[in-house]
Every structure is written in structure tokens, then in C-alpha cells.
Amino acid sequence: MSEESTVIKLLEGERVYLRPPEKRDLGLFYQSFYNPMVRRLTGTYRVMSMDAMGSWLERVTHDESRLLLCIVDREDDRVVGDVELLEMDPVNRSAHIRIALRDEKEFGKGYGTEAMGLMLDHGFGCLNLHRIELEVFDYNHRAIRTYEKLGFRREGVRREALFYEGAYHDVIQMGLLAREYRKKK
């Protein structure tokens, strides 16, 4: 985790920029982790103390198979979420991607689409990945539309793989190849 000195804007878009997490972001990660809507969309059911989350954040930021970045609104420098490339496999040139916006008031503003686009550009361009994949729950229609707009294709369904809020839900597996992404751009 970087210190709170100079802000390193790793990737910049029109509305958002992506930067490494800083120590001061821990409270935001913790708040987001317990937001009921965020928990539902991410299928999160476990609990974590602030100290445990701090340890997790420290570990993740030093893990070479992951790239976790905060999504920051350019207008007011407010962290609106996070996006992460994880399980990066240099041999197969593949990775998983995930995103979480902090609060439902951030939905529908284009933050997620732009942040995903910046991370995909970075993954396929700078990191020379061949494939990026993700999983999304069948009830997260907004995310599915966003992922399809970015070029992800449905590759499979893990039927009733998530038990959440008293019901089973399908997990949709989606993938995107570098050549498909470049063609779409």
C-alpha cells in the first residue's frame, strides 16, 4: 500500500483515474465491504475486522499476481470503487478481472465502464495478456450489460453455484481475448 504523499495516477480516463490503494483508503474498503448492495452484487457473506482487512489490503498490494487499483472520480478526487486484475498467469498470459463500486449512488454514471476499459487497455496493452475473464451472478443485469458492451462473451454457466439470501443463483462465466478487444475498439 502506498503512503499518502504524492498521488500516483496509474491510468487516466475522462471521468476517472486509477491509482494504487493508500493507507487512508482502508476505511473506504471496510465501509464498502459491509454495504448491503455491494455484498449482494459480489456474493460476499463472510465478515472481516478492520485489522484483518488492513492485512488483506497490505498482502494484495504486494502480490505480483494481482493489480488492485482504486477508481477515483477526477472531478473531486473521491474513491468510488476498485478494480483488480488477479490470478495473473504469465505463462498462459491470462487473468481474471473484478470490479466493485462502493455504493449504489455511484451506479449509472459510467465509472465502472470507464474503469474496466482502462484496466482492459492496461492488461492487453502493457501487460500483454491474451485473455481476461470474469464471473458475474445472473441477477446482476447491469454488470452483464456493461461486460458485453466491453466485448466480453458468455462462455459458460455454473448452474446454481451461489447460495445467497436463501436462494441458489447461476454464475455466468465471461471471457475476452486481446484480438476481440482490439477489434471492438
UniProtKB/TrEMBL annotation:
Annotated SUPFAM superfamilies: Acyl-CoA N-acyltransferases (Nat) (SSF55729)
Keywords: Transferase
Domain called N-acetyltransferase: residue spans: 16-179
Higher taxonomy: Bacteria, Bacillati, Bacillota, Bacilli, Bacillales
PROSITE patterns the UniProt entry points to: GNAT
Organism: Kroppenstedtia eburnea
Keyword Transferase recorded: yes
Gene Ontology terms for molecular function: acyltransferase activity, transferring groups other than amino-acyl groups
Pfam families: Acetyltransf_3
InterPro entries, alphabetized: Acyl_CoA_acyltransferase, GNAT_dom
Name this protein carries in UniProt: Protein N-acetyltransferase, RimJ/RimL family
